[in-house]
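Quick note —
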Amino acid sequence: MKPIERLLDANANRAREAMRVMEDAARFLLDDASLSADLKRLRHDFAAAMSRLPNIEQTRNTPGDVGTTVSTPAEGDRRSVRDVAVAAGKRLSEALRSLEEYGKLVDPGWAAAIEKLRYRGYDLEQRLVAAIGPLHRRQWRLCVILTEELCTEHVAFDVAKDALEAGADCLQLREKSMEAGELLARAQGLAELVETHAACLIVNDRPDVASICGAHGVHLGQTDLPAAHVRRRFPQLIVGVSTHSLAEAKAADAAHVDYCGVGAIYATTTKQRKPSGLAYLTKFVERYPDMPHLAIGGITPDNIAEVVDAGARGVAVSSVVCGAKKPGAVVKKLLGAIGT
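Predicted structure written out below.
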């Protein structure tokens, strides 16, 4: 049974390390006493469970472990506190699953106890990632929403490139009717492009595509998948939600979204909804001063000054940039009005 015992020892170490990383996040980054205590209890209960398999550490053979020299680029890719917490949570669940399955060969009763710990770990992972949400938030100044049919002067990729070179710090890919395969290919190309400009890519509606292509996040409308569900299933993604009223903003905040679309500010050809206007923008900023947001809807260089005066720290635009002969010039005008 020595190989099985080596396997159990290795996964026990992985689980302990993951729980410590998660507990440190709750304790030192969030100052969350309840979550920190629950993670500590999980760690102690796990230690008690492992005491039922004494001396398995004596089977350890780190120099002879063929897996110690194998690694992947993803193991070194941590761009945020949330990335660290998510990686630890996934490592914990994987380690506990392996312990549970192989533990059935040693002691089925012990394996059943590990299963209960695994479910507790799932819940704590979700609580931790949700709590870290505010640390994951970022306030963009200008997001350009890309839709091919609106790019009447240049192809969408060239519009994106010009916009980024002019200073846009976020792109959103919005193609409602595009087939999934083509959408993924386009998203992958944009994901590579934003990396060279230290900007972010958001995919509209499709968290699956956003996750596969390596985008930073997903934007959801009021009739799309619930933000809370997307947060649990894709914890590595920034999650944004369109809001048109304070009631919708309250629901988005309760779902721990990372930013809100606020609008429509003015009438727009891409949305038939009645504009919420500048009054809603002002109320949103007053009610949620720390929530990143993007004012959206009919914003142009001619009216952006009053949008900024109403409290906007960032805006999202589409046709005014996508349909421009010189997209970069329009972006610079908009950024000039937003300021630093």
